[in-house]
Amino acid sequence: MSQKHGKAKRGIPAKEDFNEWYPFIVEAAELVDKRYPIKGMDVWRPYGWKAMRMIDNLTHAEMERTEHEEVNFPLLIPESLLEKENRLVALLKKAREEGVDPSELRLDEDEAGFKKEVYWVRHAGENELDIPMFLRPTSETAMYTMFPLWIRSHADLPLKTYQVVNTFRYETKQTRSFIRVREIHFFEAHTAHADEECATKQIEEDLEIVRNIMHQLCLPVMISKRPVWDTFPGAWYTIAIDVCMPNGRTLQVASVHHYRDQWAKAFDIKYEDENAEQQFCHQTTYGMSERLLGALVGMHGDDQGLIMPPAVAPIQVVIIPVLHTEGKEEVLTHVDEVAATLRTAGLRVKVDSRDIRAAKKYFDWEIKGVPLRLEIGRRDIENGTVFAARRTGGKEPLPVADVVDQVRAQLDNIAKILREKAASHVENRIKKFPKIGWKADGSMVFNELKEGTIYEMPFDGSDAQAEEIEKFSGFNILGDSVENFEQEIPCVVTGKPTKRRVYVGRTY
Amino acid sequence: MSQKHGKAKRGIPAKEDFNEWYPFIVEAAELVDKRYPIKGMDVWRPYGWKAMRMIDNLTHAEMERTEHEEVNFPLLIPESLLEKENRLVALLKKAREEGVDPSELRLDEDEAGFKKEVYWVRHAGENELDIPMFLRPTSETAMYTMFPLWIRSHADLPLKTYQVVNTFRYETKQTRSFIRVREIHFFEAHTAHADEECATKQIEEDLEIVRNIMHQLCLPVMISKRPVWDTFPGAWYTIAIDVCMPNGRTLQVASVHHYRDQWAKAFDIKYEDENAEQQFCHQTTYGMSERLLGALVGMHGDDQGLIMPPAVAPIQVVIIPVLHTEGKEEVLTHVDEVAATLRTAGLRVKVDSRDIRAAKKYFDWEIKGVPLRLEIGRRDIENGTVFAARRTGGKEPLPVADVVDQVRAQLDNIAKILREKAASHVENRIKKFPKIGWKADGSMVFNELKEGTIYEMPFDGSDAQAEEIEKFSGFNILGDSVENFEQEIPCVVTGKPTKRRVYVGRTY
């Protein structure tokens, strides 16, 4: 398909050269403009913003289905709340290191050391502010300051809230559109529950939501429980959702955290239970970001540009009138009728009647990844057909009489093909973990590990051994798959048969 | 209706005491929570946020109708761009003072003095940033930095973009939910055109959009061209849209600016015309904010709480099952059926089957301003009716057989009543401007001006005379009404008959 290590046709880099293709395509398809004068802060162009809003709409629909309520918190957070979080994180770190329950520990105020990579607001107008503030990286501290005011009794639980907002991270690494940016379009759900078990059920619901959304996006994902050293600070455990990008690197697109009552204790989030006793809440969070769009771009695109999954395509169908001098008006009128019929059925349709060559039109809509193109000329009118070209390949005439059903079937088919292609890409990338070699000094040797591959590793060793694998291999332990594997395979370290599977790979 | 200067029933301050009623009601109706630890930054609660999003949806629909495209710009703006704006504003000020065309002037870099009331970001993590940045108060500078990259030829015009974002203003005055806040939920449209006339047509389209939205919100507005000293810095002229609040103060809820080519010259926004010559664009902006919600609250609310206009009510219909021990299941099933029928028709319906007293339910939904309440009990099922109570007053049984049409008619009727009530409120507030008295030293005396009144002043004097009226009266000149008045009335200053009408009042 593509010329190896060169430009594919029409100036687009070959997708094989992913590190060239990706930054090129996000601008060429007019998703974002990177020329804004702050690095890592792109301008969302109309087509990209529409795509992001379509993805948000999937999320809103799932939130409504599961009875989460949308809130909107201030962007700015007073420094004092960050200190509260810092103390909590330091306490949990200490508890982990000492192998004790966090509730057995107390922390001095000055033990809270680390400064987050946040943007600070310390001045306004000509004044220095009394209380320094920072731009939210996420909203735990802001929200958990308010939760105690909203939660009084068990009748107020569960509290299920979410918001879709801009968040900020002072990235020092190289930035990359959607994948590593400094202003992040972010979704965050925050819930509070009566006990650990109720919170655990929320985690299960979150994973169900993840699966529903990923199905619509045609994205196969790896869902795994992160190792303890990669758990979100403040969380009891973290389940992360990774997508395998074309270059074999994994991209975390979502994560779910079980907080138990750790934050509740730090922020005093209590309720009166049915016996009139005060109890701490158990909490969870669930986050996703614009990385979902980055994953779509990377997973589905090809040498011609993007391919948008029909569920979130800003334009699902582009109609191109095929015009000759004779019968121009007739064709244009017919095209408008077909477009109106499709729009009435709820489909997102664009008519491209620009006075330019057809090849240029094809190029424009292919690079933008419009899933279905319909061409309509005089002959099609005579034949009672429209001529359909799928962005995933294949062309055929469709009867215009039931054009809505026909188009819907085509879009379903395109989604199916995207899912199959993506699944096969991931299957090809995931390999069995090769044998570990051992040196005399006990260090590990990984001669057979290959860049661009993700490994499924039968593992039943200790955390310390997992950390050694990370250290000696240079690969990351993504975590324990949440899928149930029936087969017992010997652990790569201990040799003991195990059903546990750990994903290992290179991450973004 | 209300007890004068006291609490009305059920703990709600009387609306007559507007300065007590307003802050009470925005929290009691659960629109926002003001207990967030930064003053002037409220937390949007689910009900308030839903209402705001409903208002946004009206805006989105109008933007789509008029072919504006939605973009999303970074929140942070580098300081250097502000300096560009400052120089432009200083230049325009000078041109106005000297009475010359701005293009005849050139400005030295150091003449740009004033610092805006913005929040500054000068630090991130542990670092001081090389380039200081500020949080957008509006996005002219951010956008007009990109426009030259997007506009090449006349074929790229008009460029019509908009965004709905959070903006920031370092308010030093007393804050008030929705009306004067530090983080502002904001809509801003920015357009670029080939010439002044095209830009002027955009202004007309903007005012048509304003009228459509205000009709849905049941808000009568005063639309006037602001006096020159109250024109947005950088604008050729500003048209502002004011709502008359219950206390007679006017609240600016939207504004439209014609920039001519002033910003284009400062930011080098040019296009190649049909004769292959470079021309500067002419630009406009149109802004609205969460003040629209503040205006709704103030205009329509009463001693019982909010009244939400049906077009933006988060809940349009609340259904309350009337339950007795017998036939409970039957009633609940019937209620669910009615709710499903209404929802299928696109209506926003809530069923309140909480196990509490009916009076408490009435209170909850009245304070939140749900326009229509339906009660359904066994007798209603027997009679084939539902019992409807309008939030604007009046109750009656409706036939359940065509409940969708019946409910729609009720909601239309409620909107009509809100419009009439609001119009009559404004009519009562707007008076003819009283006679000006003159002292021997030539200063003006305004003995008859009354607080809480807005005046329509026939005026044909100079800007200097208008400024004198502001100075001596303590009232604000809102500006020249854009309505066409046929009748000629003598100007309050010169005595010359004039068709011009200037609004004068106290502003928020």
Structural notes for this entry:
Two copies of one chain form a homodimer. By secondary structure, the first copy, chain A, is an alpha+beta fold. Chain A has three domains: 32-75 and 136-300, Bira Bifunctional Protein, Domain 2 (BirA Bifunctional Protein, domain 2, 2-Layer Sandwich), CATH 3.30.930.10; 317-421, Anticodon-binding domain (Rossmann fold); 430-505, C-terminal domain of ProRS (Translation Initiation Factor IF3). In chain A, 34% of the residues lie in helices and 26% in strands. The first copy, chain A, contains twelve helices and 27 strands. In chain A, strands 3-7-8-14-11-10-9-24-27-23-20 form an eleven-stranded mixed β-sheet. Chain A has a five-stranded mixed β-sheet with strand order 16-15-17-18-19, with helices on both faces. Chain A has a three-stranded antiparallel β-sheet with strand order 4-6-5. The first copy, chain A, is globular and about 85 Å long.
- Kindly give the count of domains of chain A: 3
**Count of helical stretches of chain A:** 12
Residues in helix, % of chain A: 25-40%
- Large-scale geometry of chain A: globular
Task: Specify the CATH class of the largest domain in chain A.
Answer: Alpha Beta
Between the first and last Cα atoms of chain A, what is the distance in angstroms?
Answer: 27 Å
Integer-rounded radius of gyration of chain A:
26 Å
User: Using CB atoms under 8 Å apart, which protein chain pair has the greatest interface?
Assistant: A-B, 53 and 53 residues
| Name of the CATH homologous superfamily of the largest domain in chain A | Bira Bifunctional Protein, Domain 2
Task: Could you tell me the CATH topology label of the largest domain in chain A.
Answer: BirA Bifunctional Protein, domain 2
- What's the β-strand tally of chain A? 27
Query: Class by helix and strand content of chain A?
Result: alpha+beta
* Overall pLDDT score of chain A: 93
Instruction: Kindly report the spatial arrangement of strands forming the biggest sheet of chain A.
Output: 3-7-8-14-11-10-9-24-27-23-20
Under the CATH scheme, the architecture of the largest domain in chain A is 2-Layer Sandwich
The stretches of 5 or more residues of chain A where confidence is low (pLDDT under 50) are 1-8
For the report, how would you describe the main beta sheet of chain A? 11 strands, mixed
- Strand percent estimate of chain A: 25-35%
Quaternary structure annotation: homodimer
